[in-house]
Amino acid sequence: MTPTIGDAMSVQRVLLAEPRGFCAGVEMAIKALTWMTRIFEPPVYCYHEIVHNEWVVRAFEKVGVIFVDDIDEVPEGAPVMLSAHGSAPEVVAGASERAAVVIDAVCPLVTKVHHEVKKMSSKGYDIIYVGHQGHDEAVGTVAEAPDSITLVEPEQGLGDYRPSDDSKVALLAQTTLGMYEWQKVMDDASARFPDLATARKSDLCYATTNRQEAVGQLSDECDLILVVGSHNSSNTQALVRVAKENGVESYRIDSADDIDSAWLEGKTVVGLTAGASAPDHLIEEVIDRIDPEQGFELWKVTEEEEYFPLPPQLRQFVTTLQNLVEAGVTAKQPAEGGYLERDRTWTASEALKLISA
After folding, report:
1. Which domain holds residue 248?
2. Is 181 marked active-site?
3. What is the pLDDT of residues 296-326, one digit of tens each?
């Protein structure tokens, strides 16, 4: 059990945000890479971190996954997975040329933005893409139409941006931005370009929005908000910014070990949440470390029922594997579901326990 913090005796309660942690895209990606480690002999290669969480990446490395930042590092004939953040077209093409098997675990919500970029570009629009320079998702999205798209940092705004035609400007965004970040740029762009084209729905993903809404509500109840997630997780960093925008002291932590006891001095109620790629067991360890006198309670904003199935090519492999097992060993009972039928109820947390055992 994680040691508690002696100076934390003033903490009476922890309010635990709900929803928090894994989103549907992360669930799909982690389960997909787990299948890869079970189907193929190691090493299995993954282009970029499968999700932006240090603990998850280390867990996969221990079972033989090699993460690369250049597709040329993948040996010819090796199995490779492309990360949940989306990959540039040339990366997808390069993987297909080198690897025996390519599974693209891109989040469907990121794919939606890629489609919007290609559609707007084909219609002759200059595209403003609000995102963070160098983030994996932003790099892959900009690469879909580099001659038509201009990346704008949300903190810097439009600045002196000038399109070739004021009547043909589109605005798109990285899915993990903060709501307030998107809105500020949207308002400015709408004022400058009356014919501004945007997606029918906000590009911000449902999980990002829900987690930020929870933090916004927690800000009215808490003296301090802790956000569990890795430094390179954009949606995690956005949660910290949302809390601070609401006037509440907030810190990002990778795990319970990162908590500074000084943060808790004089704090009565601590809010706790996690970015969309942070495992829930890390949250449990934080609660144990804080050891609030009155325990914790859930602060529920909404229910999340979204589910993204495994990538199509991986589903084919799983189906083939199941058919071979049934043919060679024994047929399943008529009412018994197969692997894919059980995927909706099989969680990423269970997958991580499987590879960590």
Report:
1. 6-23+206-300
2. no
3. 999 999 999 999 999 998 998 888 776 765 5
